[in-house]
Amino acid sequence: MKLEKVLQSQGFGSRKHCRALIEGGRVRVAGQGVDDPEREVTLEGLDVEVDGTSWRCREKVYLALHKPVGVECSHAPSHHASVFSLLPSFLVERGVQTVGRLDADTSGLLLLTDDGAFIQRHTSPKWKVPKVYEVTCAEPVTEAQLEALRAGVVLADDPSPARGDAQALAERTLRLTITEGRYHQVRRMLAAVGNHVVALHRTAVGELSLPQELGPGAWALVTPLAVGR
Ligand code: URA
What is the whole-number distance in angstroms between the Cα of residue 61 and the centre of ligand 1? Predict the structure, then answer.
């Protein structure tokens, strides 16, 4: 593939813009300056540097973001900043999307990718990908509430019960693992058993736990295997 096209595929701008970047001496490949936009290269694994930004090219990209509270999973947020503002612009430009959504006031592991099949697989209830939440409640969590969550609760607009694996962590906190992603599901499940969520944090999706070293607002590349492809 031509170098200008590889850069375009990675989100560094239109083909014309990428050609100008290369001709302007702003691109290095494997540490060497290049000036030929039509140079033939192999996309996967190609190390480029564009205006000082180093990047290993890949066909598809998978990211784990530690979503902080107070940001929205939307390109056009209504009340807060967008999660996309936490990523470098070339990743946004190449079209990464969130794999499902977290509420603005939920923190924790959010996956993003430009692999549409991966998004479909991880958001469809058919595949039962587990999502693990640490839930802090306003009231003490009772054994009866935990049992009701495990047995399944009916949410207002949906007759099929929503259930999850519920384990107490402390007096007012529990770990809840669900395999669907209905609207406000965890908050509504806790409301249905007579409690109220005051803080919600996602710790894992599929095989992937939120990396400890990833602070709020930080992101890292992950391999699809790590999220159970
Ligand atoms: N359930 C919720 O209620 N909110 C989230 O953000 C995720 C799951």
Answer: 25
Clarify whether 103 is annotated catalytic: yes
157-162, long-range: CB < 8 A, 24+ apart: 158/182, 162/188, 162/189, 162/192
Task: Characterize 112-145 residue by residue with b for buried, 16 or more Cβ atoms within 10 angstroms of its Cβ, and e for exposed.
Answer: bbbbeebbebbbeeeeebebbbbbebeeebeeeb
Residue 97 lies in a domain: yes
> Average pLDDT, stretch 3-9?
98
For the Cβ of 102 lying below 6 angstroms from any atom of ligand 1, the answer is: yes
Share of the chain above pLDDT 90, in %: 90
Whether residue 33 sits in one domain with residue 22: yes
Domain limits for position 174? 130-205
Residues 49 and 88 in one domain: no
- Kindly report the pTM of this predicted structure: 0.94
Nearest CA to ligand 1 atom 4: 184
**Average pLDDT taken over every residue of the chain:** 95
Phi-psi region of 194 (alpha: psi -120 to 50; beta: other; left: phi over 0): left
The one-letter code for the residue type at 154 is: V
* Measured CA distances, 87 to 49, 118, 139, 187, 206 (Å): 17, 20, 37, 28, 23
Q: Evaluate whether residue 229 is within a structural domain.
A: no
CB 204 within 8 A of CB 130: yes
10 lines ligand 1 (CB under 6 A): no
Check 35, 103, 105, 158 and give the catalytic one. Answer: 103
